[in-house]
Amino acid sequence: MTEKSINFPIVFHFHQPVDNFQWVFEDVYKKSYKPLIDNIFEFTDVKFTLHFSGNLLEWLLNNKPDFIEKLKTMARRNQIEIIGGGYYEPIFAIIPYRDKIAQMKKLSDLIKSEFGLDVKGAWLSERVWEPNYPSFLNDVGLKYVIVDDNHFRSTGITEEGTFYTYITEDEGKTLRIFPINEELRYLTPWKPTYMSIQYLKKAADEKGDRCVLLISDAEKMGVWGTTHQICYVEGQGHQEGDEGKPFIPAFFEQIRNNTWIKSLTLSEYMEQYPAKSLVYLPTASYDKMEEWVLPTEIRKNFKIIRKALKNDEKMKETYQFLRGGFWRYFLVKYPESNNMHKKMIHVRNKLIAAEEDLIKVQNEQLTSVILKKIAEAWDEIYKAQCNDCYWHGLFGGVYLQFLRFSVYTHLINAEKIIDEINILINPKLRSYIYITPIDFLKDSRTEYLIESDIFNLYLNPSDGGTIFELDYKPKSYNLLNTLTRWPEAYHDSKKLESKEVLVDRFKKNLLRLRVLYDDVELEQLQADQYYEFGDFANESFKVTSTEKEGKIAVIEMEKNGSIKDTETDQRYPVRITKDINVEDSEIRIILRVIFDEISENEEMLDRIIKNLSLAIDIPFFFNGDTTKFQWNSKQVEFKHKNDSVLLQPFKYTGSHFRAYDESYDLHFEFDISSKIDSIKINKFPIIAYAYTEDGYKEIYQGVNVITLFKLNKSLEINLKFKIN
Predict the structure, then answer these.
(1) What is the architecture, at CATH level 2, of domain 6-285?
(2) Can you give the pTM of this predicted structure?
């Protein structure tokens, strides 16, 4: 009788986000990467497939030569295969075709030059798959890809069916697909090794062509929770079955000792066995990702339904066809993600235009200089495509403000290089300012971009006539890299019952207008819990004029709206205008509130003016060391040392505010001039409450300054912003 056997490829995925902290790289290397590779190195007869994101591989090449040498040794003895993918770990679905190819070639070329290995397979960031993937993966010479077994469920393929590989095609271009095994993903390293072996034994058969693929984040084997102790510390592994032996060496020994387990790389399996059949997979990611992407209220219900179906033996067949959302919806769920993505598209379009202008250059030496700069600009854009901060689930994602800052930094760096290129082609462009009406956010509405050699100011008339991005180019710094405190499904957790979670009604943009009672307290503003009397906060303003003259750009807009009476449900008509002036390094805002004169409604107008104030939102973001953020005002003398700390809530009466980010030597300052004698200024930190791999965390997202002006029949406010 033929002995049963199972093919068992093991894949480890090594990744760190672009611009993650250096101490994180070192900590993860010490706890996970080094001990994992050290163990793999010792088990010469066990084979592995490895994936490294390009920026992490660069760091290892520059900082850990012994680690790299072990990889080279294992490559020479055919113990490991290294697969490719996007160099900076993008989600392929949201980057253009040209960038997909460039990022994959960049990583494949690095692997070939350093390890002498031909790259045959692709890692998909967050296992996001779309049906057109075979075309571009085939175009770059890749032969196979790894996807989640979740991708197969809605095609009718059962768990047993995922013990094989399949082939798919797009435009006649084929690609082999390896399903990842869900059961083993949850067993390792959390359960004793014998449980994984039992599962493999159950999957084994006499024919011997089955393939059970284990894939794991390398960080899971040493960084998550207590996994360093479980995986590598003698006596702290699982007691049951393993007698305390560390999981990783115990697991590798099990593979070595059970000869019916066939250890091989993915390419070796593909060379030995054909695909089971042709298959076409729908758009998919792993099951949890498809839950996380859903709108918050829908996500709450979906989680309940999914858990009930999964735990009900009678409903297993129904559960197989349960699907969540679509990864791209993160760009809708979090407008801040969409903003980063659409800026990336905008900047790369500017770079392509600069490339096309190269035809004007006749000097070969100058052409060579420009081509080098073009390559540098492309690499900045590719870095900004790193996926980690475009979504949120268990990982902090979009809530990790320093990762958003990284995206903007690289995109603004690219813009500055484009400016240099344009100057080389046309020296007259050394100083410039443009106004561009464009559907920047791709929402069928027109946004207005003021772009100069000093500032980028992005205006959204449809969202309250607010400014949603403000880049100070000399320091590659977006001062509006704030994050709105969005409601999340996990905010209903019992663990948070004693904790008030603050959420916002509107996105955190500059120049958002509120109309509220005079006596609203700082705490109410901070919690965004007050009654709104106006209809200006997020309604559309009409752009009435755009004008550029010399180094000055002006956009004027207005809205005819109304303010609710404080005693009745009636509303009084009012017109508000906003004029935005950008000149050199200064931004000036002129805001006017004009009430219509209606004789029969004079009492209502008197009540509105007597009881209400106009509030202007002035959020901003600093990225440096929060303990070194400071602020001051011409009108404030601090009584206590803590009062000068930027993240400390504070209120005062005045017309001036100045903040300082010491880490970047950046000042943000504004002055107010108005006939109003008493201007109330409220300042508080923007703190989002997010669930991350480290549990519930309060994460700093910026600072909000809200200025309050007493209404009168004709109110004019002048705001002057300076950044340096």
Answers:
(1) Alpha-Beta Barrel (3.20)
(2) 0.96
